[in-house]
Amino acid sequence: DQQVKQNSPSLSVQEGRISILNCDYTNSMFDYFLWYKKYPAEGPTFLISISSIKDKNEDGRFTVFLNKSAKHLSLHIVPSQPGDSAVYFCAASPNAGNMLTFGGGTRLMVKP
Amino acid sequence: DSGVTQTPKHLITATGQRVTLRCSPRSGDLSVYWYQQSLDQGLQFLIQYYNGEERAKGNILERFSAQQFPDLHSELNLSSLELGDSALYFCASSVQTGDPSGTQYFGPGTRLTVL
Asked: Which of A49, A95, A103 sits opposite B103 (nearest CB)?
């Protein structure tokens, strides 16, 4: 039973445009949500997080939106850059310091 | 660079063998987590240690064990290896207290190949 799902295995966008990556979850106990970026042969790199008491968190070009009623979160990257090309994972946790449950990842390709 | 180090980077071994993967957390982090990434399973949580004590267990096989030492580094021991154990093994660390987001920072991983 996949508790965190990323339904789009891949996404291709043009440089300068917006990239929107989506994530759905089923476990209502999840309270913290994080996005990680992963390049081949490297570990996941933390990007941005949001707790369930917020519906938006912004950090530079990255914004995460959380819709608790729909159990849906999304990551917006504006403007997209070729260096953003990587696999993006969303992850969820019931409490700070708990194990993370990861989605399957979305491969983002930003074309120059 | 996340500050989490893992050794070795690559490991090739045969079925039935035993290996040890090592992880050093970021300075000041008390919690260490181990995750496995295989082709068909994605990133799966294995086990968590906090300040030397086991805190949580995930889908960790009985053939696998881990420990966290007084200097806070951790080792993941994999024994009676099978072909299906071939995967990337990641270690992550977090502060556990004082960081309400519970952000985990990942090491570069160890790629295990079982032949």
From this structure: A49
CB nearest A43 (choices: B2, B99, B103): B2
- Three-state DSSP at A54 gives coil
Q: Which two tokens stand for residue B15?
A: 């079925």
β-strand partners of B34:
B47, B91
The whole-angstrom separation of Cα B104 and Cα B46 is 14
Burial B40-52 (b: 16+ CB within 10 A, else e): eebbbbbbbbbee
pLDDT at position B100, please? Answer: 63
In this prediction, residues B16-36 reach a mean pLDDT of: 95
A97:B31 CB<8 A: yes
Give dist(CA A108, CA B61) in Å, integer: 33
The pLDDT tens digits for A50-109 are 999 999 999 999 999 999 999 999 999 999 999 999 999 999 998 767 889 999 999 999
What span, in angstroms and rounded, lies between the C-alpha atoms of B51 and B16?
A: 31
- B-contacting residues in A 19-38 (Cβ below 8 Å): 32, 34, 36
